[in-house]
Specification:
about 325 residues, alpha+beta, 3 domains, five-stranded antiparallel beta sheet, about 25% helix, about 30% strand, elongated
Length: about 325
């Protein structure tokens, strides 16, 4: 058996009224990634799709993409992850080609042309390319120079309002034609990479293809491109009003059991006419201790207020009251 201690703020509780006494069905455990389970929440998926669809269409028009692919009927993949703060991570693929992602949880916006983009990861000195994309950009006709590609990248940055000053756009921290080394031979690829680490409203990385003379990757971490959070997220997810979100199923169970025992404490304190403000709410407690056996069931709970310590066991019956706090 181990003792699990939560402090007075009870960090496991992320939202909802702390002083409520929710039913068991009103407690939802977050996934290990901190995401709210949203399986089957079609209203939320519709919100996610149309939120990204609006941004994707605006970008397609500004960047000269094939706008006929940016449509609800062209979606080949959709994934949406809601977070307790109202933000969402949403990824959509249109026509098996255009990948758009809005990670509002991290204020990140990402676009990739899956056909012409190099699967490169920008690091201090190297790029890693996907074999198919490398061959495509190696053998395809390059219509651009580094200077022309930079103009296309800078235009894309300006079009979404990231440029605080023209001088910042004109001077990226990195600008180069990508290369690929095969054995002892270096090949110049029909793709160019640019990175702005400062001077813009958030960092930005852009790749431009010399084959199609257009942006094939746009990765920005600017709050300016962050999707607004919905005001009715709970409703979109199909959750009941007042739902409490906790970080794990074990904590969800503990919270429900503690709430049941808090009702028992109030029942007894009122009949004993204890000299304290009643009823006792969650916010009145200084500490909460939950004893959890190896099997996972709650064996007992100790609730400490400023004046008294109340101990209950699995039967949810009060076993004893101690003057002063049990755990200091």
């Amino acid at each position: 058996m181990g003792w699990v201690r939560c402090n007075s703020r009870w960090d496991a509780l992320l939202c909802g009224r702390c002083d409520a006494s929710p039913a068991r069905s009103n407690v939802v455990a977050l996934l290990s990634s901190g995401v709210i389970p949203a399986a089957g929440a079609e209203a939320y998926r519709e919100y996610a799709l149309h939120s990204v669809l609006a941004c994707a269409h605006a970008a397609a028009v500004k960047w000269g993409l094939e706008t006929n692919l940016i449509a609800a009927g062209k979606v080949t993949s959709l994934e949406a992850k809601p977070f307790p703060d109202g933000s969402s991570d949403i990824t959509v693929v249109f026509g098996d080609r255009y990948f758009f992602a809005a990670f509002s949880h991290e204020s990140r916006f990402l676009f990739r042309d899956l056909v012409y983009e190099l699967k490169w990861a920008l690091s201090a000195t190297t790029y890693k390319q996907h074999t198919y994309a490398v061959e495509l950009t190696r053998r395809g006709t390059n219509h651009l120079s580094l200077e022309k590609a930079q103009r296309i990248a800078a235009t894309a940055v300006r079009s979404v309002g990231l440029a605080a000053a023209e001088s910042a756009v004109a001077n990226p921290s990195r600008a180069e034609q990508l290369t690929w080394r095969n054995g002892s031979t270096n090949y110049s690829l029909s793709c160019y990479g640019f990175q702005w680490e400062s001077g813009l409203d958030g960092g930005c990385t852009v790749a431009v293809s010399g084959i199609i003379s257009n942006v094939v990757l746009f990765d920005s971490e600017s709050p300016r491109l962050r999707l607004p959070s919905p005001t009715n997220l709970v409703e979109l997810l199909g959750l009941p009003a007042g739902t409490i979100l906790v970080k794990s199923r074990q904590l969800a169970y503990k919270w429900v059991e503690a709430q049941g025992m808090l009702a028992e404490v109030n029942f007894c304190a009122e009949r004993l006419t204890l000299p304290m403000r009643l009823p006792i709410h969650r916010r009145d407690l200084r500490d909460l201790f939950v004893a959890v056996p190896d099997g996972g069931a709650v064996l007992g709970v100790t609730l400490d207020s400023s004046k008294y310590s109340f101990s209950c066991y699995v039967t949810e019956r009060l076993r004893y009251i101690k003057i002063g706090r049990a755990h200091v």
